[in-house]
Input
Amino acid sequence: MATQSFLDMIEEFGTGLGVPKVDVDKLIEVHRRNIDALGRSAQVATEGAKSLADKQREIIETAFRETSAMVRDFKPTGNPQEMLVKQTEFAKKAFDMTLQNTRDVAELAMKATSDATAIVRDRLRESLSELRNSVSAGSEMPKKK
Output
């Protein structure tokens, strides 16, 4: 009586079920490309975070400079009407700067997020296609008898 190895029994069982053979080298290559895509995505996300930090630093420096200039140039007069006009101009300018800065930061954040997730999304599509093709090709293999 011949003894069968456990792996031979599993292979025979899989063949009987019509389970396709797995090309381990191809599977490893697919996962290597997946890991590479994750690395590229992380790099893009890191660069995006750096851009956001740089933009926020620029915003703070500009706001400080602008505020200092406005305070330095603000000379109170005895006329309450003039003071009100200057204060209104100051408030409007501060509001406009804040609004534009918020837009800039939101756009940077969206771009960074979009670019990083696009890498993973595209690789996921490729990976699923590769696996689908691998299974399709493997299921056409002749069965053992």
